[in-house]
Amino acid sequence: MYFLHLVDRPSAEAVAAALAQVFGVPPAEVDVAAEGVLDRNWEALVTCTTEERFGDVALTLDVYALDAVADPPAEHHLAAGLAALLRTAVLFPAEGVRPSAYWVATPEGVVARARVADTDDPDEFLVDAVEAPVARLPHVRVIRIPEAVYDLRVATPVADAFRDGLVGEREEPAVDSLGAWEMLVRTMADAWRPAGWYPSKLYGWRIEARDRLSVAEAELPPQDATALRAALAGLDELFLAHTVEDPEHRLAREITGDDDPAGRGWWWYRRPDPLPWDEGLRPCHQPGQRPGPVGTADGDGGVTDGARPQENLGQITP
């Protein structure tokens, strides 16, 4: 099941032709009809129910493929394929529980995060912000979307192992703090992927978790304290390997707002270089990409976004 939202309103015939091409099925095996139409080919390999919207989106597609469809595309591949073929921007939900979290695929091959606004009318669809320029949404502001980073799931095997080996009770604060520290360090070690940047506020929250761990170590039962020290040793080493000394306390001053941030743990006096919220880093426009300089011009004078172009798809006239 796929739920896609198109900025333009192509014909049913154009949508059907595009779906056939992306799914790799014969056109006769695709049925596209408006919401409420019952006289249709329900046995088609791919069925699509359309519903008109207003605001920043003109048409919503509810797409279903039978199990007989070989190798159905992932949702972002389907969105990117339809965007290229129909020459429109296509929005689709991001993973997670945040209703405003979306991705947008453009005809030029960019796939970027988007934020959708809450409205009182279920038929109205408004885009509040995007992380890359979208020609079909010229009025929408282009910003970094912090919650796209907040919501990322980062594996924490060290914190998980520490939790499973605890002998004391009521140690969840230590487990949570260790998990927060591990998420920061592992994301840093992975060059801030998949987002390509990191909000300063989130960095501050998670480096404060390292402060709490220093306090927790003294309060834990001896066996758990030993386990915590062992867990921290590896994570601290990883942090050291991906940061530089910060003798001017630039990071501590920026995070805390304190002109004299003395008396803190050593981790406050090291920083990643560059800082992951510097304007020199841009958001990645597809999962798995590394960050790069903002505004890197390609040979045509456009902006290189690193997104994989949709090759050999051609174009379908809406």
Q: Could you explain how this protein is built, in words?
A:
With 318 residues, this protein is an alpha+beta fold. The protein is 32% helix and 17% strand. The chain is built from 8 helices and 12 strands. It has helices spanning 12-23, 75-86, 146-150, 157-164, 172-189, 200-219, 222-241, 250-256, and strands at residues 2-6, 30-34, 46-52, 54-55, 59-65, 90-93, 101-105, 111-117, 124-130, 141-142, 244-245, 270-271. Strands 1, 2, 3, 4, 5, 6, 7, 8, 9 and 10 form a 10-stranded mixed beta sheet that branches. Strands 11-12 form a two-stranded antiparallel ribbon. Strand 8 and strand 9 form a beta hairpin. Helix 4 (157-164) packs antiparallel against helix 5 (172-189). The chain is elongated and about 70 Å long. The two termini are 23 Å apart. The model is unreliable at 287-313 (pLDDT under 50).
Structural class, please? alpha+beta
Percent strand: 15-25%
Averaged pLDDT: 87
Tell me, what's the shape?
elongated
How many beta-strand runs? 12
Share in helix: 25-40%
Write the element-wise H/E pattern from the N-terminal end onward.
EHEEEEHEEEEEHHHHHEHE
- Major sheet attributes: 10 strands, mixed
State Rg.
24 Å
Termini separation (Å)?
23 Å
- Count of runs of 4 or more consecutive helical residues: 8
Query: Which regions are unreliable across 5 or more consecutive residues at pLDDT < 50?
Result: 287-313
